[in-house]
Every structure is written in C-alpha cells, then in structure tokens.
Amino acid sequence: MATEQVPFELLKTFSGLIYRQPIFLPDRLDVDSYHLSFLTTQGENLDDDAEVPLFLNQLSNILPSISDQKKALLSMPESWRYALFELEEKHLDFTLDLNGSHSSTVNNTLFSFASHAIVEENNNHSNILLIDLDKFNQQIFVENLNQWRNNHKVLCATNVNSLDNYALCKSNSLDLLQGQFYTLPSAQEKKKISPSMQIVMELLVKLQDPDIEPEDLANTLNQDISLSYKLLRLINSAFFGLPREVNSIQQALVMLGFNKIKTWVSLLSLSGLDDKPIELRIVAMTRARMCELLAKYYNGSPETFFAVGLFSTLDALMDKPLASLLANLPLSPELQSALLDKEGGAGHALQDVLNYEQGNWQAISDSAIPVEVLARVYLDAIHWAKELNNQLQD
Fold first, then answer.
1. 219-274 pLDDT per residue, tens
2. Which of 266, 267, 262 is nearest to 249 (CA)?
3. 137 pLDDT more than 90
4. CA atoms within 13 A on the CB side of 292
5. 323 and 210 inside one domain
6. pLDDT reading at 195 higher than 90
7. Are both 164 and 199 inside the same structural domain?
8. How far is it, in rounded angstroms, from Cα 369 to Cα 149?
9. Which of 248, 294, 298, 300 has the lowest CB atom count within 10 Å?
10. Does any domain span residue 188?
11. Is residue 266 in a domain?
C-alpha cells in the first residue's frame, strides 16, 4: 500500500481521542457526512480554552484521508473555531458543534453551527439541531418535533442505537440519523437468508475448512469468475503495491500465502452483499484492520485477529444471531470463543474495537492496551478501510 500522506500522520499527533461516526440520510442509509468528535483521553469534552492542535490548520487536507464526503460535523472546543477561520481552502462544508454551546449568532460566512435540543426551546436558530435520543423518551420527542422544525433547517437524531429508534425517526421524517442501529441484525428472527447470502455462507464454510488444500481453494475461486477477477484486480492495485503483477490465483497463493488469500476472499465475498448500507462494509473492514493491528499487543496471529474483526459483522450482514451463523461455520475454537465470548487475545482485541466504535470510553480506559495506542490504531484502521473501500468501488 502507498505511504500515507503527511497530513494524516499529523492527525495522529493529537493527544486526545478522535471519534468518527457516520451521519445517514434515513431512506437508503447513504452517508451524508461524518461527525468528528475531539475528546480528552477520558472521552470528555475538551476545555473551551484548550490548546489548538497542530493538525487543525491542515484539516482540509486531512479530511479526505478519512472521508469521501466534502463536509463534516465537528464537535470541538470554542478555542479551535478561530483557527478554522484561517483555513486556506474553503471548499469543505464544516458544521461546528462547539461543545454544545449555541454559537449561531457568531458573525461568519464560512461555517454553519449545530446546537443541541432542549425541551424548552430558547429561540436558537442554528442550522442543524442535534436531538440526543438518550435524553428524550418517545412522547417528549414527538411532542417537540414541530417547534424544533420551526427553528432549524435540519433535524439530526443522535444515539439512534436501536432498530426501534430507527423506525421512530423514519416515521417522523427526521432529516439525518447517527447511531449504532445499522450494525444490528434485523429483529425478524425467522427471516430467510437470501440466495446471494447463502452462496457467501457456503464459500465461507469452504474457506474456514481446516482440511482445505491450496489447490482446492484455487479451483473454487477459479470457478467464480467474478470473485477471482475482483481478487486479482485488488491484489494488483496500488493498495497492495506488489513489486510485480499477479496473473493467476495460484500465483497469488504463492506470493501472499494461503491464509492471507483466505482472509481477503472472505472480505471480498462479504463486501459484495449489495442489500446492506456501504457503511456496514466499512465497519467490517475497520474492525478487521483494527483487530489485526492490535494482534502484536496481544501476541496473536494477525490473520486470526483480522478474521475475528471481519466475522463480528456477520450478524448484521446476514440478519441472523451470530451464534446461529457460527454454528454453521467450521471456525477454530479460538475464533469461536473470541467472537461469542470475547475470550483470548483476539476476543479482548475485538472488545477494544467495539468499545471504541461505540464510544464506551470508560471501558477503553480499563483496557490492557494504553488509550494512546488504541487511538492511533483506530485512526490507522479508518484510514485503511476508507482507502480499501475506494479501491473496491472503482
């Protein structure tokens, strides 16, 4: 893979936590933008007079390394705002959430502002209103929608962390949604697996068969022209940066190794499911990469840790409980216990990844891995997943 750009490396010098969450358009769950929060290592808001970090004046150059969208919601301290005014490139659309303060009256033409919903509206007319569903029950939420709409152009529900909350937001025509709902399997326990998903599951079974030989794997892949084409195309892309072109599956097995090819085929087969939001595919890649990067801290196999992160999204991808799906996969005991019980090094790494993904900062601080390491690994993982997703979409 090509060397990462200097501006992105600058982002990793930030001494706190950086947290990226997708903001969805409700109907097709396309990503409208990303919400970037800048926090202390304890996961709390920075002080309003916090020192301006070195990366901030490069934010216009940094954002493309972790997002394809040209806009973002930024939660940050008041003291950073004026540094943003000095950005040389103004083509990016930034909305500022200044530690929850109401700053829509600030005289500027560069940025819009977000404010946070309260029951007794104080006539604040910020562009975006953030409605935290953890703070409002359904009745209060519905009762206040009209007045919130009268004062704000865009209503964005946050902490949409259940499928019921997602349904509530859709039925009330919220403009934007943010939360973990899209990483959850459907509530329909008896929902049938589609033919395309059944094919993927059958392939995963073959890939995880401990008795499969390289020649058998090559024959299986060669029978699936589309998958073998995607695999060779990816391996020969700049993302891998191999010194010479790979012309066959057999050659790929020699150059990259049996286990790595199995891992990449698993990822490609899961990423080909087209009835799920693309962001779920990015979550699968991010979890896999972050687990892989944590392997050295837990003295584990990178391929195993990668597989744990990848397979942790099977329930959401297949809309089935994870335990029932894994019952049909011949996974090793290490993978099984890591996925179902979060046991062993791989299981602990997966728990770290899930805690960061969900913003569970107390659990992050209790991890055996230093917070600073998890923060850097997280940034590397979301950057890697963004680059890989671009390659898969080309």
1. 888 888 888 999 999 999 988 888 889 999 999 998 888 888 988 999 988 887 76
2. 262
3. yes
4. 20
5. yes
6. no
7. no
8. 44
9. 248
10. no
11. yes
Q: Which two tokens stand for residue 230?
A: 């995607």
Same domain, 326 and 349: yes
Asked if residue 234 and residue 266 are part of one domain, the reply reads yes
Residue type, 294: L
Helix, strand or coil, per DSSP, at residue 318: helix
The answer to whether residue 25 sits within a structural domain is yes
**What pLDDT shows up at residue 89?**
59
Last residue of a domain, one of 162, 183, 204: 183
Per the structure, the complete domain to which residue 317 belongs is given by 195-393
Q: Does pLDDT of 70 surpass 50?
A: yes
**Residue that is written with structure tokens 């975006």 in the block:** 128
143 and 268 belong to one structural domain = no
Q: b/e map of 91-101 (b: 16 or more CB within 10 Å)?
A: ebebbbbbbee
Phi, psi (deg, nearest 5) at residue 284: -60, -45
As for how many domains the chain has, the answer is 2
| β-bridge mates for residue 72, sequence order | 34, 94
User: Looking at the domain assignment, is residue 258 inside a domain?
Assistant: yes
Give the amino acid at 361.
W
Report the pLDDT averaged over residues 20-26: 96
Q: Are residues 61 and 140 in the same domain?
A: yes
Please check whether residues 211 and 104 belong to one and the same domain: no
Rounded Cα–Cα distance for residues 81 and 97 (Å): 10
Q: Average pLDDT over the chain, rounded to whole?
A: 88
Maximum distance among all Cα pairs of the chain, rounded to whole angstroms: 69
Rounded to 5°, angle at Cα 184 from 179 and 186: 125
CATH number at residue 224: 1.10.3210.10
Report in angstroms the alpha-carbon separations of 146 from 149, 152, 332. 5, 10, 54
Name the pLDDT band for 393 (thresholds 50, 70, 90).
confident
Q: For tokens 């996961």, name the residue.
A: 43
Whether residue 367 sits in one domain with residue 239: yes
Q: What is the DSSP letter of 185?
A: P
Task: Give the number of residues written for the chain.
Answer: 394
**H or E segment at 374?**
helix 371-393
**Cα–Cα distance measured from residue 174 to residue 156, given in angstroms and rounded to the nearest whole number:** 7
- What pTM was computed for the model? 0.91
CA distance 71 to 92: 6
